[in-house]
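Z., the sequence and structure:
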Amino acid sequence: MSYFQNPFATEFRGSWILGDISDNLSFTCPANAGRGDDIIVSWADGPFDLSGNDADGNISKTLNFRFSTSSLNYENWSLLAVDITTLASSSASTTHAEIVNSLNANAAFATWFTAELNSSTGRTTIRSRQPSTTFRFFVVNGQAEAKLLFNQRAGVAELPTYFDRHKFAYLFTTSASYVSFIDRQNALMPLTPGTFIVDANVITNAKDAYGKSRNLDYTTVRADWQLLDGKSDAFMFQKICLDAFGNISQIIEYQAGSKAGDLAKKTCYYRNGGASGANPFKITEVPYMLTSSDLVTPDCTEATVCS
């Protein structure tokens, strides 16, 4: 029940283990269609006003990178923060050419990357000096990235809470909680739009490979059971109907996350005269098409709280 961003050029695909292998579901977060394994490009035209702060109040002139190497199993993500206005005539109107010069003049940046102007667009292009087979990097959201938009075409998707285990190692609060997930992939950036305005903007402004809006709405985060979309028998909902005497007369059962029009099962209980406490003499189970009035919403406040 959360949004995640995939900053890399390959699609994230994870399995939700639900019991029997036939019940396991796959969830994906699209690849970052705006970059290559060793190259990233700005998707915004300059000049840029980098004199103030981003939407969360952090200084705009800093461009942040995270990078890791295969020698560290991609589990230690170093932070490289670069002031991209050091060679600009005005931080309030910084051009791509000035950004490129400022980046290349930074010794730490030049150790790992090189920047240049794209010959056709005139925008900033950054390329890794390391082979893509042993080096991974991405631009951190916010600050200068909010203006330059290297991540504009990064994959963004709603995924079950389960996939939080695949976030970057440096985002775990303790090393113990991190190492407990042996299947971790170090591949996703969780987005928390309710806490950070920058994350809300990332979701709203996310675009696909063709520059078209992904039409995501950060205000409508679905619960994990909704993300099942009626695809798993491991989680079932039941709407129970009673007769005038309080006996169960019908049970409409369907897979969690199903919608009106989906297939369900309706179980009917037939009782002699419908008297209170009468045992059913016939039970039938038939295919049934769900209507909107059949759908129930989990509300555990009505149940006994587990201690």
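The two ends are 24 Å apart (CA to CA). The chain has six helices and 15 strands.

Let me know what you think.
H.
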